[in-house]
Specification:
Layout: H1 2-35, H2 39-43, H3 46-73, H4 84-109, H5 120-152, H6 159-182, H7 189-225
Length: about 230
């Protein structure tokens, strides 16, 4: 029992350390992409750049090993049996909460990141775009949660899901428009990638909406003939 508690504490500490390290690494990557600087300028040289990558890999390996050891040896821990839709909905709920926390903490998170922009107008526009991005992502997650809730209840083909998918497509295209505007403020390779991904996501959502609409129509006709 004591060993399981110790493994649990070590796993939580390792998980937090990995999350902090990956967050710092991700923020540094965004800064490098938008400022045009090199990784060696942050780490202090090519050797320490490799060491930085090695640190990320070791932390992930350590967390994975501790987690596997904890859940494979614990006798008192019972995990709930979840279907795939329920598991996905759990992930969506978690991401939705993280998105809300990020939105609340956004003024404190981006304060130092905005210093790379020379003019205050650019800083205000970038901050507004980050807020709009987070709101759009939260809205898409909200609609996805509704869809997976209906899937878990074995009622996927409904007009509500058709409308949800269509609104998700609108949100994706609206967010793509935000990144398109960003191209006129600060061009980066990551912006082009995100713009392409969002356009594809919008087209995919509208395609699924059309498929769900047709499936819903067929289901309603079958229900009437029975």
């Amino acid at each position: 029992m004591k060993n399981n508690k110790l493994r649990g504490i070590l796993f939580i500490i390792s998980l937090i350390a990995t999350w902090i390290s990956l967050s710092l690494f991700y923020n540094g990557a965004i800064y490098l992409d938008e400022s045009g600087a090199g990784m060696n300028q942050i780490t202090g040289g090519e050797f320490w750049t490799y060491m930085s990558w090695l640190k990320q890999i070791l932390l992930i390996l350590l967390t994975t090993i501790l987690g596997f050891k904890l859940f494979s040896t614990s006798q008192s821990l019972t995990l709930p049996k979840l279907s795939f839709p329920q598991f996905v909905k759990f992930i969506l709920d978690f991401l939705f909460v993280i998105g809300i926390v990020f939105l609340v903490a956004l003024p404190f998170i981006v304060n130092s990141s905005l210093n790379i922009y020379r003019y205050y107008q650019q800083r205000h526009l970038m901050y507004l775009m980050w807020v709009l991005t987070d709101l759009a992502i939260l809205y898409v997650l909200y609609e996805l949660r509704r869809i997976y809730h209906s899937i878990a209840n074995e009622t996927p083909f409904t007009n509500d899901n058709v409308k949800s998918l269509y609104r998700m497509g609108i949100a994706s295209f609206a967010l793509a428009l935000v990144f398109f505007v960003k191209l006129f403020i600060f061009k980066t390779f990551l912006t082009y990638i995100m713009l392409l991904v969002l356009v594809i996501a919008g087209c995919f959502s509208w395609t699924l909406s059309a498929l769900f609409k047709e499936a819903t129509r067929v289901k309603e006709e079958n229900d009437l003939t029975i």
